[in-house]
């Protein structure tokens, strides 16, 4: 509810009077609706990562590896890096599902394939419940 003048101890009071969980403050997402939960946040330090691979390629994240792969192998369903890092953090590409998480991603099963279903149509149904 908007227009609150105070919140619970584990909540953050937005500029518009909305109470949100304190853990949502400074998470990079505007849950308040007026962006006050993302103001005055310290930017997280980003360690400088030196890549041994040329631009347009993907370096396997295994510390022992200096293997460079074409970016087309990222999220293609095959483990090309010894540590599987080329398949890590890929969106869910199943065809149709019920999604019930507040945050998340999904993509068409064909989105990452270079030939994108030559002649075969897929009909996927997604049910989104943002709670």
From TrEMBL:
<feature type="disulfide bond">
    <location>
        <begin position="14"/>
        <end position="32"/>
    </location>
</feature>
<keyword id="KW-0812">Transmembrane</keyword>
<keyword id="KW-1133">Transmembrane helix</keyword>
<feature type="domain" description="CUB">
    <location>
        <begin position="95"/>
        <end position="131"/>
    </location>
</feature>
<keyword id="KW-0732">Signal</keyword>
<keyword id="KW-1015">Disulfide bond</keyword>
<keyword id="KW-0168">Coated pit</keyword>
<feature type="disulfide bond">
    <location>
        <begin position="7"/>
        <end position="19"/>
    </location>
</feature>
<feature type="disulfide bond">
    <location>
        <begin position="26"/>
        <end position="41"/>
    </location>
</feature>
<keyword id="KW-0677">Repeat</keyword>
<dbReference type="GO" id="GO:0005905">
    <property type="term" value="C:clathrin-coated pit"/>
</dbReference>
<dbReference type="InterPro" id="IPR023415">
    <property type="entry name" value="LDLR_class-A_CS"/>
</dbReference>
<dbReference type="GO" id="GO:0016192">
    <property type="term" value="P:vesicle-mediated transport"/>
</dbReference>
<dbReference type="InterPro" id="IPR036055">
    <property type="entry name" value="LDL_receptor-like_sf"/>
</dbReference>
<keyword id="KW-0472">Membrane</keyword>
<feature type="disulfide bond">
    <location>
        <begin position="75"/>
        <end position="90"/>
    </location>
</feature>
<dbReference type="InterPro" id="IPR000859">
    <property type="entry name" value="CUB_dom"/>
</dbReference>
<keyword id="KW-0325">Glycoprotein</keyword>
<comment type="similarity">
    <text>Belongs to the LDLR family.</text>
</comment>
<protein>
    <recommendedName>
        <fullName>CUB domain-containing protein</fullName>
    </recommendedName>
</protein>
<dbReference type="Pfam" id="PF00057">
    <property type="entry name" value="Ldl_recept_a"/>
</dbReference>
<dbReference type="InterPro" id="IPR050685">
    <property type="entry name" value="LDLR"/>
</dbReference>
<dbReference type="InterPro" id="IPR002172">
    <property type="entry name" value="LDrepeatLR_classA_rpt"/>
</dbReference>
